[in-house]
Amino acid sequence: MTADSSHSRSLYRHADLRRLIHPNSIAVFGASNRPGSFGLRTLNNLKSFDGRLYAVNPNYERVGDVDCFASLDALPQAPDCVVIAVNRDLVGDAVRASVKAGAGGVIVYAGGFAETSRADLVALQQQIVGLVEGTATRLIGPNCLGITNYARGARILFGRMPEPKPLRRGGIGIVSQSGSVSMALGQAVERGVAVSHAIPVGNAADVGIADLIAYLAQDDSCAAIACVFEGVPDPHRLVQAAEIALAADKPVVVYKMAVGDEGAAAALSHTGALAGAHDVYKAALESAGVVMVENLEDVIETTAFLAKAGRPRGRGVAVVLGSGGLGVIAADKAEQIGVALPQPQGKTLAVLQHNVPEFGAARNPCDVTAQALNDEGPLRACADAMMADPAYGAMLVVHPYADAISSARVRLWVELADQHDKVICNYWATEALEGHGVQDVEEQPRIATFRSLARCFHAIAAWHAREDRRNENLAHKPSRLVAQPARANAAALLGQHTGGVLTEREAKAVLALYGIPVVREELVQSAKQAAQAAAGIGFPVVLKIESPDIAHKTEAGVVKIGLRDAAQVEEAAGELLARAAAIRPAPAVKGLLVQPMIPAGVEVMMGARIDAQFGPLVVVGLGGVMVELMKDSNLALAPVSQPQALRMLRSLRGAKALAGFRGMPAVNMERLAQIVARFSEFVADHAQRIREVDVNPMICNGDDIVAVDALIVTADT
Q1: pTM for this model (two decimals)
Q2: Average pLDDT in the 76-87 region?
Q3: Which class in CATH covers the domain with range 310-475?
């Protein structure tokens, strides 16, 4: 598949696509009675469509049960949607005729265009797109399976999708590049999942992934959006669509294929090696409230859950079941994934203690034991008490066996979910994956079914994270921390470097203008001067070669630390100068940097790079060599606010090190977050002038935070 080729236009909205996607009339251009033809397949798929349906082909009076017209001009009205079921060479004429007839949009089945990468066929696709540009006619495809709109009862495709059913609330819209992925996910209808739309874009020559997200965000029949794609040429439009969905409180779940990070090996900085293509997509989309999942199998269950869950009304999850073993497994998974199972308190605890036998568990998870088979009363009382408790925003129950007994229990869950207006997660523990009652439970508007406990808790964690992003976006629009004069002064310093890499000293001088604390230092030219400077600074000191050609000094062996007297400094200076002279190709050496030895603390790195698609990015992580060894970093589009920076720091896997570890003082997180936010403003301000930036490490010791090394790579390197 190829991605949307229209880079500069604005995002299509619901009004732009309504006639195409939610048509009252459909014309199948090129329909025929030939068995197996795409036109005939489409007409057969549309037998339950209650709008006006036309076949268009001068060779027939009827195709199947549908009246056939010689041309689009001969139709009694302008069609909303035209399905173009002709071969590649005739597509241009069909699109031209559709525009002339005033069609709302066209769906082009034929392949063999830009997906071939042949220059002449890429050009042919561009010519066809040119026919609809500037008109009210939109185009899905080419190389497209066709679309399904269950809210309209319309399967406008030559492929296979389940028969339309009455659409319940909580429908999910499916958007993909691949037709086969659309069919595979859309068949969830047959197990009871409410699907409002299934729309593959094919080559996305006109209407693309972002446009469909924006359309579904404004469509009342869709409660959440599932999206599967490889990549798009204008990611900013994708982020804009996600922001529209977030503003409409319409969850978007994305599984992005093609996660390889080409080009990272060529990066000069740690940041360039860390911020791969997939990480950038993830950071950009998550900042707009998108839920990213790691597997195709996660897509439908996660999206269906978010469609049913509404907004979280509490962070805790209550677990009520009749099996101690499954309760232990649930507790393990929740802890691994970071979902809270708070213990009951007060009245809730009293209800559990009154109803749970001594051989059960009057706690969370609550094991009422197998007595629930004979007496539902204790199970109801415990579940009701936990659902009523504001500490719990959702409840997890278990479907252990696919039979009439387990299915009957669903009635209780429905009553409690409706009574308390909270979602219930039903863990389908049985291996009878499509066994007795599965459709009944899937169809419940407040019960979300999961076939994996890990998937369940990941979905709940994502639900909470999305709420945090939503609140963060509403409450914390970035307000500038750095005064405007700093921007001009930094630009002047950067302007003195016409190409290449700024030395450590030069880079820190630029960053200091943005309020980033940097280590005191002196630049000297000889071993004797180094010893004199060290005496003035105070021992112990650090000695480094100052060169724009040595990006990573530790790896090159041109750093000495912990030098405690003048003799050690002079000896180290000679050794470092000799090592630098031995490097090939020979680096430009500007002298020796003498710095005080900063006391040990937690090492943190800040980095940045300018992405070709998304623009300026900022990365934070644990510093030194650990950032690449442990791959523990967080990425965001620059600039970030101080609260956003604080979230990035707290969500590091190694965040405990910042909170005080093995007797070290806790890092002042507010101060560190402000430094990260200031750094991000620098990156955003000078995105046209820089390519990569590293501040690694910053040594953090309580309130004392200082950058001891920095690297700025200019854009014209």
Answers
A1: 0.88
A2: 97
A3: alpha beta
